[in-house]
Amino acid sequence: MVESIGAPGSQASLREANSVRIIEAVRLYGKITQVELASVTGLSPATVSNIVRRLQASGTVTTEATVRSGRRAQLVTLARREGLAAGAHIGRRAMEVHLVDSGLGEAARQHLPLPPDHRDDTTLDRAAMLVTELVEGLGADLDDVLGVGVALLPAASSGWRDVDVADVLGRRLGRPVVTAPATEAAAVAELRLGELRGASCGLYVSAGEDTDSCLMLGGTVHRGAGLPVAGIGHMRVAPAGAFCRCGARGCLNTVVSAEALADPLRISHGRLQLRDIIAAAVTGDRGCQQVIADAGAAIGGAVADVATMLAPDRIAIGGPLADAGEAFFRPIRDALRSRPLLQDPDLTLVAGRLGPAAAALGVAGLALDAAGAAKALEG
Length: 379
Hints:
Largest sheet: 5 strands, mixed
Order of helices and strands: HEHHEEEEEHEHEHEEEHHHHHEHEH
Oligomer: single chain
Number of helices: 13
CATH superfamily of the largest domain: ATPase, nucleotide binding domain
Low-confidence stretches: 3-9
């Protein structure tokens, strides 16, 4: 079954959305009463009370009695489990840093724009600073951090190729550091917290500045036995097309990239960034909708080829292009439906749930895994 994206929600999905609103408000304010939660979320006091009760039962939040304006009130805070981990996603133009507890519950986060061609030394200094600030903001210190993970885009900056990120950041923070490709980290997050949960064979696709993918088999990342797994961005889709930076000709990344999408719009729209194209497509610009649809068709063909060969039970697509909605997802569904061998009702296509946070959360999870493995060896 190829699921539609953005279908009307059920009562259960409404409860989940309201729970997310409350968790986000508690995360933003740190400590907040139930009365204040009702005010900032727009939910009724009864709804807030019921959701807080469920979140407390699941161990997501804790409550304590307090007095506000002479009246008794219930103060709500996020539950903190033993130990912390930090995940940093360093992209081309921004860095996301998330702090999680040992159960991957998010405790704090920070977003930092980055200049073009940002240098590795200054960017890693900023990453160390943000991790330290987030930890101290929770009243903890770096000794409470079990590990740090860093998710990197391929060739995030041309000057990064020979940088040992784990060693450099590890020396700055005095904590163990692991690194992973951003798409792999996002796939891990979707597997543990998002739309790939329960998938025995899950395909995660990141569509944005470039297109990349990661295959999850039996709950773990498939990395191949020898050669690196390049992902669908380097599948040949245009044999007579442009040369890719990998050296091959006609890769999907030469057809679907920020530059490739902006090029046909240059005469009519001027120079646009990818975020501008997506925003215009969402608001109804036909030219931008068309290039987004063309991108969806190209990615859909590649995804259908992979699905025909590997038979995944779930496909999740994240990255900036997923924010374009139906203009992007419709041609992908059409490509899957056009293949007779992909009519399995168990095959589902969904939008990634975690958005820009996925890579940072996933690599924080990998840092926790490494810390657990190290502790097991010590034992």
